[in-house]
Write a structure and sequence with these properties.
The chain is an alpha/beta fold and 476 residues long. Helix 7 (250-258) runs parallel beside helix 8 (278-286) and helix 11 packs parallel to helix 13. Helix 2 links the parallel strand 5 (73-78) and strand 6. The protein has helices at residues 44-59, 83-102, 115-125, 141-149, 197-201, 209-221, 250-258, 278-286, 303-308, 315-328, 347-360, 377-381, 388-411, and strands at 14-15, 23-24, 34-40, 62-64, 73-78, 107-112, 131-133, 154-156, 179-183, 185-186, 205-206, 226-230, 238-240, 247-249, 265-269, 293-295, 333-340, 364-369, 417-425, 432-436, 442-446, 456-464, 468-473. The chain binds 5'-deoxyadenosine and iron/sulfur cluster. The site of 5'-deoxyadenosine (5AD) has 13 residues, from strand 17.
Length: 476
Amino acid sequence: MYNDNPTLEGLQHKIDPQKQGEVFFQESVKPGDKYFYIESYGCQMNFSDSEIVASILAAEGFQATRNLEMADLILINTCSIREKAEETVRKRLRIFDKLKTNKPGILVGVLGCMAERLKKKFLEDEKLVDLVVGPDAYRDLPQLVATAEDGEKGINVFLSREETYADIAPLRLDSNGVAAFISIMRGCDNMCSFCVVPFTRGRERSREVYSIVAEATDLFEKGYREVTLLGQNVDSFKWENPETKEVVNFARLLELVAKVHPDLRVRFSTSHPKDITDEVLHTIAAYENICNYIHLPVQSGNSRVLDLMNRTYDREWYTERVEAIYRIIPDCAISSDIITGFCTETDAEHRETLSMIEQADFSMSYMFYYSERPGTLAAKKYADDIPLETKKSRLQEIIRLQNQVSFRHNKRDIGKTFKVLIEGDSKRSDQQFKGRNSQNKMIVFPKTPGLKPGDYTHVRVIDATSATLIAEGITA
Ligand code: 5AD
Ligand code: SF4
């Protein structure tokens, strides 16, 4: 879900206000029209937020453009999770700043997770931007743009305890028309010691259930066939109906979304090992359209390191949750996030992370070396004492092992038949489709007449790499 190397193409389209939710490319400038360009970094939540921003700007008469040079307003939706993500944003801002020499009057804005921490630096010290808008302040964008147009700096980094943008219909940007993301909650109340998210995105709050179900229904009616419910910790979703006082937890929400239509696939991310319940697992098992795939970040395989990370579970607890998943949903795939080289991690502790990859049989993992973030618990309490060389070599070992485990996982699928939701042409050939199975594995297979993106089809796997399954169609 997290993208450390995002393409520098933004999410850049024209929006026709007549067709809520649909997006059109803009080809050329019409005099008098105003255009915005938006580029997003970081997690899916950030990409999802950009779709809310697009909706708010479209209502103000702004059209989206993919062409930086056409833009009157350039926005960059930023991530703070690792130092590298911040460096990338800085480079982009310098490029945007140069555009101002050719086209005075254009406005540049920083949105998202870097807003709070770096507002002073961007606005005053480096004078790179005109607007700084935090993740809970997007409703204020039109007003902040007007302030900036008057030559003042537009800034709002207020973090809310209530804002969920529940009533805003996101404008789907960069969409394949088949799969979409739905934000179900914002913020995070866990205090993992390495993580900046609670500081950049504020307190956890769950979105009103009916608006989530309505968004899923609307997407299905527009032809979408897959939704991914997004939150930093979906298992702590909790919404109380103010009238009936009925409490809807994550298991119940999953069920409600699954019931929108049997042909609407439901995915979710991210699960927390301390909170994922058997009730959720039984709900996944009970509905064919809830995908058999759980992203369950372990972070480390060693209990002492997990304690320092303040993850509030240990190796035994994680192992038990993995066993419960495989018992209740036998063909479930589990993926993970892993941080290597956390403060004081020894070689023996690092090897426990390696053994966890084998033991839990992760189908894939997002793997990082520890990057100290200012303001976090770890930055305050522990020395970042593992040399960069050691962090990098441990990361290499982890990547190498995960690739082997993924390859083994995929080879076990050879000969099996899967239901696939077609997403579009494969990257390599327009003679082939790509799509995912329930376990979130990418499968490529030859096109057959009559099939199109958004259709389900059955395929048989005939070969595998560590990243992809290769299949043939099945004739009934
Ligand atoms: N350094 C390295 N990786 C981090 N992550 C979060 N914070 C840090 C950090 N300071 C990773 C975690 C998390 C994922 C989104 O990013 O693995 O699950
Ligand atoms: Fe997403 Fe966290 Fe990065 Fe913010 S800091 S964009 S929440 S990954």
